[in-house]
Amino acid sequence: MWTQTQYPPPIIAHLDLTAILSPQLPRVLTSGVCAAGSFILVAFSHSVGISLCGVVLASISSGLGEVTFLSLTAFYPRAVISWWSSGTGGAGLLGALSYLGLTQAGLSPQHTLLSMLGVPALLLTSYFLLLTSPGPQDPGGEGEADTAARQPLINSEAPEWKPGSSSHLSLQERWTVFKGLLCYIVPLVLVYFAEYFINQGLFELLFFRNTFLSHAQQYRWYQMLYQAGVFASRSSLRCCRIRHTWALALLQCLNLAFLLADVWLSFLPSIYLVFLIILYEGLLGGAAYVNTFHNIALETSSEHREFAMATTCISDTLGISLSGLLALPLHDFLCQLS
Question: Which segments cross the bilayer (predicted)?
């Protein structure tokens, strides 16, 4: 049975005034509105510019939502990080599968996107009606053996900490915490750079003519398999924990080099080999994500944990942005060679 020492306070079915008045409220509302706006803009778009505006809104919603909710995990038992990672991995897989399934069933892309408008509404409903305020329990309250081996980035303890308290940290404290986080931020940036370089620059070029799948269908299967790998590894924290996340970054960069070589030389004989590599790519990315934030939860003191979580969220955004800057022009260059 689940116990209160292991898990967050029980879900309630009434409006939590603390959630309404919290400093996270504007971020949550903005995230929900941007998500709904992205679906509507892309669904009714008749130009590339409008579609790109919808993509921008989706990115704002995703990035703002991640930094908001992930920083809130600092105030709940550490198991919440695993649940959060599993949930975000499942969201990616469900999104890819739902779009693939609905379009394969004959629903138009416009109607498929409009059917997703219930998701932002569900987000806001969950935040206001289901989420409870964190109690005073220790976020490391699983009683794990490694709790005693925790090495805070700054050896000090605050008497009281609550959401939004990281804004009171001095610049010196923030800088000290940030320097301690670099051993996790840099590998996570590299992991996301490599995998989104593959996703944005190489997926469309990994095309096999000797299959029953069209070019568009192959791309959708690539996305679905990638998300399946991410979901599996983001849900694996209780089974496998990785301390040295730089190894995952190295393996992901090797993935990028291998697939880039295949796009250039076309030496892979079957699309099923690409399927396996892309599934493996997702496994590496999800494992890097969940283990990075789990390790940070172990190694930061309570009053710095919210700031550490929010700061490390820049890693995936930075990696994705850098990969886009390089992958898109390289994609065009490789297209001209073919």
Answer: 81-100, 112-130, 177-198, 246-265, 271-290
